[in-house]
Amino acid sequence: MINEPLDLLARMQQQVTTWSAARDRRAVFLDCYRLMTANMLVALERGDFADAGWVDHLLHRFADYYFDALVAYERDDPATPAIWRMAHQAAQQPHVLPLQHLMLGVNAHINYDLTFTVVELLQPEWETLDPERRRQRFADYSLVNQVIAQTIDTVQDEVITRLTPAFFMVDKLLGRVDEWATARLLTAWRDAVWANAVRLLTCPDPATHTTICHTVETVALRRAEAILQPTNLAALRSLFSA
To answer: Is the CB of residue 2 less than 8 Å from the CB of residue 60?
Structure first.
């Protein structure tokens, strides 16, 4: 039985509306995330996945990680993941571009949150899954890449271009190249997430588990720092600033 989608979408939309009214730049990522989630729910209802119940659980638990980190940050909880603290704090910096806000959120949610969401869902069943069932889980997980790819154009048209009008001209000049490159990047990130999740599920001891978790966080933080690099900012300004 697929979970009722309106609760999650309504929560996302309510937060986007609140942030947009306050000109809080955190709305950039969440609005894009909302669009992707809506498309995922359509794909679930359409029967695209072999195990719709498992994918639906993954979708909603994944969203919990985002909102849990947000609540922790708003409460100034020391347990707030460092990667999300960086993304939320960047929203207060006027020089950070909408595209950078988007990529900071995508990086934190995929390279950090998704790793631990996948582990959480697979942990109880991993030892009982035969090779075919594990392949099925990965196939359903990978099919999400198609939904993301189909959402990228909408994100550009409805979110990024609205906030950065000059992006429209760049998008037209590049044709499908920028969508293809973005889809390739996110697919590579999601493939690495699955590989890290399997490493965590099969690691031999707690010390190794801790090391892998630390590496996951470190890589995500380094990517966030690269997204915010002044040199990258200058390049993005020349392309995307009105």
So the answer is: no
Question: In this predicted model, what pLDDT tens digit does every residue of 39-63 receive, in sequence order?
Answer: 999 999 999 999 999 999 999 999 9
The residue whose two tokens read 């990680």 is 65
Give the predicted TM-score (pTM) of the model. Answer: 0.85
Q: Which residues of the chain have pLDDT under 70?
A: 1-6, 153-182, 230-242
Burial of 29 (0-12, 13-18, 19+ CB in 10 A): buried
The contacts of residue 112 (CB under 8 Å, 6+ apart) are: 81, 83, 84, 216, 217, 220
Residues spanned by the domain of 208:
5-240
Calculate the dihedral angle through the C-alpha atoms of 13, 118, 3, 159, rounding to the nearest 10 degrees.
20
